[in-house]
From TrEMBL:
Alphabetically ordered keywords of this record: Glycosyltransferase, Transferase
Catalytic activity: 2'-deoxyinosine + phosphate = 2-deoxy-alpha-D-ribose 1-phosphate + hypoxanthine; inosine + phosphate = alpha-D-ribose 1-phosphate + hypoxanthine; 2'-deoxyguanosine + phosphate = 2-deoxy-alpha-D-ribose 1-phosphate + guanine; guanosine + phosphate = alpha-D-ribose 1-phosphate + guanine
Protein name per Swiss-Prot or TrEMBL: Purine nucleoside phosphorylase
Pfam short name (any one): PNP_UDP_1
One GO term (biological process): nucleoside metabolic process
EC number: 2.4.2.1
Function: The purine nucleoside phosphorylases catalyze the phosphorolytic breakdown of the N-glycosidic bond in the beta-(deoxy)ribonucleoside molecules, with the formation of the corresponding free purine bases and pentose-1-phosphate.
InterPro entries, per the entry: Nucleoside_phosphorylase_d, Nucleoside_phosphorylase_sf, Pur_Nuc_Pase_Ino/Guo-sp, Purine_phosphorylase
GO molecular function terms attached to this record: purine-nucleoside phosphorylase activity
PANTHER family: METHYLTHIOADENOSINE/PURINE NUCLEOSIDE PHOSPHORYLASE (PTHR11904), PURINE NUCLEOSIDE PHOSPHORYLASE-RELATED (PTHR11904:SF9)
Any one Gene Ontology cellular component term annotated for this protein: cytoplasm
Nucleoside phosphorylase domain: residues covered: 35-285
Protein residues bound to a purine D-ribonucleoside: E207, N249
Length: 290
């Protein structure tokens, strides 16, 4: 992060040509040509264990690619086959709170676009706002509320990625959501797979009690520190998007409650429950028509 360009108001931009170079660099290193990309959130990177014929590139070996600095994010691009489909997995992401500009945070998504990815799955660990959610539940994301104060689409618009004013009212593909909920039912997961609204604050602190109460009033079901910037650029460049949260903790809704949110609990729940997320994602990939 000592980059000179990373200066004024965190507005470092990354040009189409720079991203094209990164995409070409990656494609020159792998044989796989996937149309599906999957971003694995905190503690969800074990999905990589299900990928066959792996070709792995650590982020720090890709010039210009942002590197994950948070535990639970391995920082590897994994190409291979999942349920007979070619895929590229991001085993870990980067977040704005790590100090990356919004544009740099979403560079991997735009790189995927230029590598030929048409469908993007985004996953994350999130705090449950909805009082009916339990730790370990999953939530298919139907919409989001961007409270992060950042938007990677701010700045000069390059039409080669997409339009100046992209619509966002149907960001999360309704057919993929229906398919995922149907699969959850078939797999006997219906009791712990919900559909709901995800919100993002920039972090890195967990929310105050008042913030959580406000989110609840606003109709938010789960909250986190990622995903929305990725979805904004994915939709901007016309990708189909599917999003899923693993509820790793219940947010604190009572003033002066002794227990507090912590990243260890997030990773621990990921460790215990991510197998269900993996199974659901794998079945969805299997049934996907690409
Ligand atoms: O990358 P995700 O959104 O899964 O990670 C969440 C948000 C923070 O990075 C971290 C907090 O424990 O988990
Ligand atoms: N902002 C936020 N991010 C999370 N990631 C996992 N749990 C949480 C949470 O409670 N709040």
């Amino acid at each position: 992060m000592s980059d000179d360009k990373h200066t004024v108001q965190n507005m470092e931009s990354v040009t189409f040509e720079e991203i094209q170079q990164i995409a070409d660099h990656i494609l020159a290193k792998v044989k796989c040509r996937p149309k599906l990309g999957i971003i694995c959130g905190s503690g969800l990177g074990k999905l990589a264990d299900m990928v066959e014929d792996k070709e792995v590139i650590p982020y720090n070996e890709i010039p210009g690619f942002p590197v994950s600095t948070v535990p639970g994010h391995a920082g590897k691009l994994i190409f291979g086959t999942l349920k007979d489909k070619s895929v590229v997995l991001m085993q870990g992401r980067v977040h704005c709170y790590e100090g990356y500009s919004p544009q740099k945070t979403v560079l991997p998504v735009r790189t995927m676009k230029l590598m030929g990815i048409k469908i993007l799955f985004v996953t994350n660990a999130a705090g449950g706002i909805n009082r009916n959610y339990s730790v370990g539940d999953m939530m298919v994301i139907k919409d989001h509320l961007n409270l992060s104060g950042v938007n990677p689409l701010v700045g000069v618009n390059d039409e080669r990625f997409g339009p100046r004013f992209p619509p966002m009212s149907r960001a999360y593909d309704s057919e993929l959501r229906k398919l995922a909920l149907g699969i959850a039912k078939e797999m006997g997961f219906a009791d712990f797979v919900h559909e709901g609204v995800y919100s993002m604050m920039i972090g890195p602190n967990f929310e105050t009690v008042t913030e959580c109460r406000l989110l609840s009033m606003a109709g938010v079901d789960a909250t986190g520190m990622s995903t929305i910037p990725e979805v904004l650029v994915a939709k901007h460049c016309d990708m189909k998007v599917f999003g899923m949260s693993l509820i790793t903790n219940k947010v604190i809704m009572e003033y002066d409650q002794e227990t507090t949110a912590n990243h260890e609990e997030v990773l621990e729940t990921g460790e215990k429950r991510s197998k269900y997320t993996q199974q659901l994602i794998a079945e969805l990939v299997k049934k996907l028509v690409i």
